Amino acid sequence: MSRGVDQQVRVAIVGTGNIAGSAHLPALRGLGPEVAVVGAADVHPGALAAFAAQWDIPDTDQDVPALLARTEPDLVVVCSPPGLHSEHASAALRAGAWVWCEKPPARSLAEYDAMIAAESEGGPYAAIVFQQRYGSGTRHLAGLVRDGSLGDPLVALCQTTWYRDDAYFAVPWRGKFETEGGGPAMALGIHQIDLMLAVLGDWAEIRAMTGTLARNIETDDVSMACVRFERGTMATVVTSALSPREESYLRFDFRDATVELSHLYGYQNANWRFTPAHHCSEATEKLWPSTEDVPSSHAAALDDLLASMRAGERPKAGGASGRAALELITAMYASADSGTPVRRGDIGPGHPYYQSMRGKAAR
């Protein structure tokens, strides 16, 4: 762990918007004396002062490098707008701090790779806030897939149908490729996409469409894709910012069972549904649910990150694993714009979409 810390973890917060106060600070404070929030940074002085007063944070600065140099945190939580994620995460890593970065991890694969290049062997490392992975239901299902208990995964549905009105997109950095990176797949659907990948593993090929149907924004407000996985599984991915009845829904059809998850922003075991195939025995029915019931949450993800820090190991939601959903979304845009399929691994340095989801239009 960086700076030899083996007990209390010193934490700095970069970006004091809604997600910092609604999710990150409660998770951090829930750990009691195990962590100490020593500083916060934000470009808006009024918001920064109010945040620091609310959470009793002793040091603040509008300049991120200055705050890092003064407070010497072990962990930096990056909650700034997406256009600043790579910059702030890289600065923290170079300063010797581990990073927990909100989604989307970066605006492009190029930015993500630059961020990871700032890591050091044995730490500090960066992890992405993909808290949906850490509910016991997802971890249990991923284990059943690994050991083949449900048979081959055949068909999957990954749906993020949420509703965001014009006021939501009135925030200056939203709905723009330059500052948000992309549309709802980046801002909303990336959590369900990451969960799908955590269960099914590597994808092979994607064919996609995007559309801007109802909001006056630069990016899309709806995207749809068909994905084929390396093991042959076929999936559809639908992400919408236009759906009045909101739902996050995943369905996995295996040879021996269908497993479904319906929730909105977080789940527990009660949100899952398990349907054995008619030909299966009682033994298959007993595979579900998990013997533990841990809700998906920032707290569960933070526990895993702190364990990785203490072990000096790359976090599960870091490196190539933290990049996987971003690569799929990048390929989605490349496929939608070209009208042709894109394979995993096609988009690297020199490819038009490596630097931006806009591809050639960004030049």
Automatic annotation (TrEMBL):
Gene3D superfamilies xrefs: Dihydrodipicolinate Reductase, domain 2 (3.30.360.10), NAD(P)-binding Rossmann-like Domain (3.40.50.720)
Region Disordered, residue ranges: 340-363
Pfam families with a match to the protein in the record: GFO_IDH_MocA, GFO_IDH_MocA_C3
Protein name stated in the entry: Gfo/Idh/MocA family oxidoreductase
Gfo/Idh/MocA-like oxidoreductase N-terminal domain span: 9-121
Domain GFO/IDH/MocA-like oxidoreductase: start-end pairs: 139-247
